[in-house]
Amino acid sequence: MATYICKVCGYVYDPANGDANAGIEAGTSFEDLPDDWVCPLCGVGKEQFEEQ
Questions:
Q1: How many other CB atoms are there within 10 angstroms of residue 26's CB atom?
Q2: 38 conformational bin, left if phi > 0, alpha if psi -120 to 50, beta if neither
Q3: Comparing C-alpha atoms, which of 31, 3, 18, 16 is closest to residue 40?
Q4: pLDDT digits (tens, 9 = 90+) for 30-47
Q5: Residue 36: burial class (beta carbons within 10 Å; 0-12, 13-18, 19+)
Q6: Prediction pTM value
Q7: What is the spatial distance between Cα 39 and Cα 52, in angstroms, rounded to a whole number?
Q8: How far apart (Å, rounded) are the C-alpha atoms in residues 29 and 15?
């Protein structure tokens, strides 16, 4: 699975790790994140991420 980087702050979403603080389990692909998921560091939406 690809990782995705926030174009605003540089946070990397790694599907292997998920986002435990937001209740996203490890193994959740970026495409399967809820539409209202936001970057845990700067709060921007998924549209501000690009595939690495």
A1: 11
A2: beta
A3: 18
A4: 999 999 999 999 999 999
A5: exposed
A6: 0.93
A7: 16
A8: 5
